[in-house]
Amino acid sequence: YQRRVRGDGLKSALETLKKTIPGCSILSDQSQQNILLKAYQFVCELIRKQQSNKVVIEELQHIREKNNILQSEIEYFKEECKKLTSLSMNSNIVSSSTHHHHQMQKDRHLVNS
């Protein structure tokens, strides 16, 4: 009796594998050995893909870290640009007012002469 129950359980598991493993249900030879071989190949392929995905995820993480550094640098340079623009504008104002002041002195000198 136990042998039959175990055999039924194995048969049920093999049927589940046939339905679950891609391409298994269309095998011309659906012996237990071929079903198990197909399942083994499928699992090996999943493991290979998982390892490949780990490498891609690590590369993506590295790219994200570089991107964060670059974003920080962009923000730093934006701030520096604002400071330089402000300094340049202030310098132009000072230069303009100094020029205006000198011109007024010349005009006064001409008037007083």
The number of helical segments is 2
What is the helix content? over 70%
What's the mean pLDDT score?
84
What is the count of β-strands?
A: 0
What order do the SSEs take from the amino end to the carboxyl end, as H and E?
HH
Give the biggest sheet. Answer: none
Shape: rod-shaped
**Measured on Cα atoms, how large is the radius of gyration?**
40 Å
Low-confidence stretches: none
β-sheet strand percentage? under 5%
- SS content category: mainly alpha
| Gap from first CA to last CA | 132 Å
Explain what the structure shows.
- The protein is mainly alpha-helical and about 110 residues long.
- The protein is built from 2 helices and no strands.
- The protein has helices at about 1-20, 30-110.
- The chain is rod-shaped, with a radius of gyration of 40 Å.
What can be said about this structure in brief?
The protein is mainly α. 88% of the residues lie in helices and 0% in strands. It has helices spanning 2-20, 32-112.
Layout of helices and strands:
Blueprint: H1 2-20, H2 32-112
Question: Main attributes?
Answer:
mainly alpha, 2 helices
